[in-house]
Amino acid sequence: MSLSNPGFRSCLAAFAACVLPLSAHAGNFNYTWAQLAYSDVSIDDSGGDFDGDAWTISGAVELTDAIFVFGGYEFGDYDFNIETDTYELGLGLDFPVGQNADLVFGLSYIDVSADVPGFGSVDDDGYRALGGVRAEVASAFQIEAGLEYVDLSDGGDDTGFYAGGRYYFTPAWAVGLGY
After folding, report:
1. Residue 110: closest CA among 34, 3, 2
2. Average pLDDT over residues 5-25
3. What is the mean pLDDT of the segment spanning 30-48?
4. Is residue 15 within 8 Å of 21, Cβ to Cβ?
5. Which of 29, 76, 154, 168 is most exposed, with the fewest beta carbons within 10 Å of its own?
6. Dist. CA 121–CA 59, nearest whole Å
7. How far apart are alpha carbons 131 and 63 in whole angstroms?
């Protein structure tokens, strides 16, 4: 399997998308957070289906009212005993566009490696740029949506979208779903 394979590139873009779901608060909220996430990945490719699971630990630290750093690590285990490791480190900006909404932008470095039995290890790196909106639609419920662009040195590039929502039990604890 090659990083130039469109299905595998899409899978790598999906891995990268899982690292930063922009877990931040709208408007006047804190951009410092930590999360543990589970992903169920399914890719339909002309060569067949590619399925697996991944776990991500990620976080961000607010540096100023408008700037934060973010990063994460993801481990994936997929069909055909393929294992992946993805690291991401980036800088984000948030701009309030109302009392309950922010525009959020990020630029990050991504390092991806895949261990494919019988083929060895494949490594690639690149960057991810994203932009979206985060809004508080009720006192404890927030939604997010946006576009992202991932460009890997050897694996090519891909553009996608993300969307999700979080329900906050307390200011420090939430549960969410994302796509």
Report:
1. 3
2. 40
3. 82
4. no
5. 154
6. 27
7. 19
Q: Specify the long-range contacts of residues 149-152, CB closer than 8 Å, at least 24 apart.
A: 150/12, 150/13, 150/16, 150/17, 150/110, 150/126, 151/126, 151/127, 152/3, 152/9, 152/12, 152/110, 152/112, 152/124, 152/125, 152/126
Are the C-beta atoms of 66 and 93 separated by less than 8 Å? Answer: yes
Please give the C-alpha separations between residue 61 and each of 35, 64, 69, 83, in angstroms, as whole numbers: 12, 9, 5, 29
Least confident of 55-59, 119-123, 169-173: 169-173
Instruction: List C-alpha distances in Å: 154 to 11, 32, 73, 126.
Output: 14, 33, 20, 9
Cα 31 from Cα 25, distance rounded (Å): 6
> Is the pLDDT at 172 greater than 60, yes or no?
yes
pLDDT at 23: 38
